[in-house]
């Protein structure tokens, strides 16, 4: 049936790409010690990009059987679309494998509800005054991409994620210490409970307040805070900004931009990574590759369109949903670890700050390298320990300068933060404002 339809579509337009996806998921959430949500769902849909007269039309539907309607709409929209100055993915087959865990789609309501109660008990056992908040989600999905240029690829994906937090809301004070992780496989209950305990231990430390004055400090960034610091890099390598020439790195391939200890990989096949896959959102085979290698810029993230416009080879970095056209994006960003332990970095951060969470960084001028925002969860460091939370302070740094000239050390340990696997990074001479 699909073959017959695509044959008909080929006679109606100059070229096409069809994307289909379906999935099912379950999520459970607790807030303020209480069960607040149980959500089960199934989703499906399809979209078509059709070329007519040298222009691309796009249409989609949440009903995958409406292929004729979607195709007709895409063709009608073509005269108003962007020029078709590239080619849809040709026939190709990935030689890689990626883990799939069907158990993610089989988790039960009872199991996740019980897990939420266990998380609450774990937090309360360490921080009785904290309110517990947590959520869990699991699911599986399937996708297929077919093009008039010969590609026909399918893929299965699995996902499981959790968020656990200890929080308190008081007049003039809001505190939330949390842990979270997304994975392509089912995460063990023991890990989740231990992470809940860690969040509670952080809460206990953060309830103590430590004074801080404006000045320049050594700062130890946790993986969570480092994720914000890396945003200018992700924005600057995005193919859209390379095509528009708004990135300062348009002509910087092969240049040393950072400290030689900085290596960043895009790894779609990482066994624990929540992102990635064998094919990107356009059916192009993905590959593990360096973005920054020993401080040197090695590559960008492209769709077929941005790669063609920039005169580069496709990189397999198209990301999409059924209702959106492909956009460039990273799969799993993996930063190389160093040789120091976290404990050693805390000792070296003596008199400085440990920053775990930032707030408001989305307003920063990432293309200029700027990252600015409030320190929503930071600690003063003395004697190799976090002694208390610092409040009412902020920082404004330039990532390009910070990771080129101010790195003291990088931890060997790394943790997942969404789709990023990052270490702890100690830097020096960071200006912190306080009131």
**What is the general shape?**
globular
Structural class, from secondary structure content? alpha+beta
Average pLDDT taken over every residue: 96
Helix-residue proportion: 10-25%
Q: Can you summarize the main beta sheet?
A: 6 strands, antiparallel
Work out the radius of gyration.
24 Å
The main sheet orders its strands as: 3-2-1-4-5-6
Content of β-strand: 35-45%
What attributes characterize this protein structure?
PmbA/TldD fold, 2 domains, 23% helix, 19 strands, six-stranded antiparallel β-sheet, 40% strand, alpha+beta, 10 helices, five-stranded mixed β-barrel, 435 residues
How is this fold's topology laid out?
Blueprint (H helix, E strand, L loop, with lengths): L1 H11 L2 E17 L2 E19 L2 E7 L5 H11 L31 H18 L4 E17 L4 E19 L2 E11 L5 H18 L8 E7 L1 H7 L1 H6 L2 H6 L19 E3 L22 E5 L2 E2 L6 H7 L7 E2 L7 E2 L4 E3 L6 H7 L4 E7 L10 E13 L2 E6 L2 E6 H7 L1 E11 L2 E15 L1
Parallel strand pairs: 7-14, 13-19
Antiparallel strand pairs: 1-2, 1-4, 2-3, 4-5, 5-6, 7-19, 8-9, 8-13, 9-10, 11-12, 14-15, 15-16, 15-17, 17-19, 18-19
Helix pairs in contact: 3-4
Task: Report on the architecture of this protein.
The protein is of the alpha+beta class and 435 residues long. The strands form three sheets. A six-stranded antiparallel beta sheet has the order 3-2-1-4-5-6. α3 runs parallel beside α4 (189-206). It is built from ten helices and 19 strands. It is globular, with a radius of gyration of 24 Å. The chain has two domains: 2-204, PmbA/TldD superfamily (PmbA/TldD fold); 209-435, no CATH class.
